[in-house]
Structures are given as structure tokens and as C-alpha cells.
Give the backbone structure.
Amino acid sequence: MKTRGTKIFFILCTVIVIILTNGSTALAKPQNGYQPQGLFNLQFVMNVSWSGNETGEPISPGETRDVNITISYLVTRGLSGRLLLQLLKGKSFPIQLSIEDKPDWCEAWTLPENMTGVIAPDEVGVQYSSLFIHLNDDAPSNYTLGYVKIRCIAEDKKGPFNIFTLVHGYDNDFTISFITGP
């Protein structure tokens, strides 16, 4: 009887550990933004979008174009992360934008570069920024395709005393293309 009870206890503990460490397997996994999940399976996920109309018209050398960009974010969770996500509701986290790559004949910057997101369970949050694209005078004026690669980062949300990670961060690149013109 004692051996049977020990076996059942061991199997039950094993199942609980598997459920707590794996959680839900149906998560959106971006190319390089996804990180392996921990105990609570909480992960920031972000998307950068913009209107194609703002980059559809050719940009002339010497011109500066303002492209409005929208940063949408949410926290994905697994089975065991629901309670922790509710406890983190309303907590802030930093969002950083940076220019990773651009043509040599172009200058690009974002304003603001640093924003603050707020954790809201099962809701998509939104922040706004502007991307400025300035073509130098030596930029080609023959309908050349150009691009600006933006990196969007949300760092890990740490627990008390920064000992362990509560929400895994996010890091991904987004490419905005444009055309030069006369």
C-alpha cells in the first residue's frame, strides 16, 4: 500500500511540474523576438506598423519625411501565468526604439525613442512615435528603393530585487521601405 501511494504521489508531482514549466504551447513566435518561457510563461510581444501612404510617395533629396508609427504590445501568457499577470496589472515597462540600418545617403531618427508601456492583462496597448527620414543632397533621385530598419525592445520585467524574470522581454527588427524621387 505504501509503495502504491508513493508511486501515485511521484506521478502527480511529475505531472504538476510538467504543467508548470511548459504551460501553453500555442504562442505566437516571432522570428527573433521570442524567448524560451519560464515558470509563468509571460512574454512581451510587440508590433510596429505605419501607413503605407506616408512612404508611398517618393522622397526628394533634401526633403525630410515624417512617418507616424504605431507600437502595439501585449503580454502573452501560458496556463500558469494568469494570476501573476493580474498581479502585474498597471505596472510599467520601458519600450525602446533605435535605428539599426539605413542607406549612407539618408539620415533617420525616431521621436520619442523611449516610451513607457503599461501591462494590461488580455488587452493590446498602443504607443505612438514618429520616424523622420531625411535624404541628403547626394541621395539618388532616380526612384531608388531605400529602407530604414528599426529595432523595438522591451526588456525583461524583473521580480523583487531583480532576482528572477517575471515577464520575458522582446527584441525584434522592423523594416520600413521608401522610394527616392526627383
